Amino acid sequence: MRMRKKKHLDERLDACKALDLGWLTDRAAEMRGEVQQQTLDVMRIFGNNYPVQLEIGCGKGAFIVEAAKRTPDINFIAVEMSPNVIVAAMELAIKERLTNLRFLRGNAEYLEKFFPNNSVERIYLNFSCPFPKQSYKKHRLTHPRFLKIYERILVPDGEIYQKTDNMHFFEFSLESFSECGYRLKNISLDLHNSGYEGNIVTEYENKFASQGMPIYRLEAVCPKKE
Questions:
Q1: Is there a contact between 59 and 76 (Cβ–Cβ < 8 Å)?
Q2: Within 13 Å of residue 97, how many CA atoms lie on the same side as its CB?
Q3: CA-CA distance, 129 to 140, in Å (whole number)?
Q4: Contact 196, 188 (CB under 8 A)
Q5: Which pLDDT band holds residue 137 (cuts at 50, 70, 90)?
Q6: When comparing pLDDT for 144 and 33, which is higher?
Q7: Does residue 2 have a pLDDT over 70?
Q8: pLDDT digits (tens, 9 = 90+) for 43-88
């Protein structure tokens, strides 16, 4: 079921247009009038050549806003499919007066429409939808079809950081990364009791951890490029 459009959404989005990079468009999106506005030009967008990090599925922005606050010498781009959701993240970024964070709307399968090859230093996958039904596994953001896209846009030795509360999705991810030649490191089956420092807690993470659920985490290094 499609989410009902929030009241005053267009006005709220317009107020955030300084941070809005537009749509990652496919054919259907173009038919709806969602036009691809630009592609990544770090100097033009951010006014510097700092490295770029990407969060896919930023939700209401708690993680990406905190990451941008902690590391002002990194440029962050957050992708979220729902305008109803991304508007809250953009409003939070404006409230924090962040200059190193921008937002894209759309689906991850079209990332190459915006990001050139070898342009992203790190990708964050925080509590992505696990799509538990086997018939939907191609929609999982760690399915090989997505990992091949990430491999192209990541710099050599670029990284993917994943967190999830879903054990079966985590196991699937481990297999997918290995199958696609990614090198795995810093694997945790219980992040909050692992001693890991520097963790930024997301909205979902706080909810699941408060219920005593373990948080699974991994880091995957991009395969060597020829």
A1: no
A2: 0
A3: 7
A4: yes
A5: very high
A6: 144
A7: no
A8: 999 999 999 999 999 999 999 999 999 999 999 999 999 999 999 9
CATH of domain 1-36+53-107: 3.40.50.150
What pTM value is reported for the model?
Answer: 0.93
Q: With a cut of 50, say whether residue 1 has pLDDT above it.
A: no
Common-topology check for domains 1-36+53-107 and 117-226: yes
Phi, psi torsion values for 10, nearest 5 degrees: -60, -40
Q: Is residue 51 within 8 Å of residue 121, measured between CB atoms? A: yes
Residue among 163, 149, 147 at smallest CA distance from 57: 163
> Which residues, in sequence order, are CB contacts of 205 under 8 Å at separation 6+?
126, 127, 163, 165, 215
CA 226/CA 218 separation, integer angstroms: 25
Ordered strands of the 216-221 beta sheet: 20-24, 101-106, 75-80, 52-56, 120-126, 154-164, 216-221, 183-188
Q: Which has the closest alpha carbon to 163: 134, 143, 141?
A: 141
Selecting from 3.30.420.10, 3.30.1360.30, 3.40.367.20, 3.40.50.150, what CATH number does the domain 117-226 have?
3.40.50.150
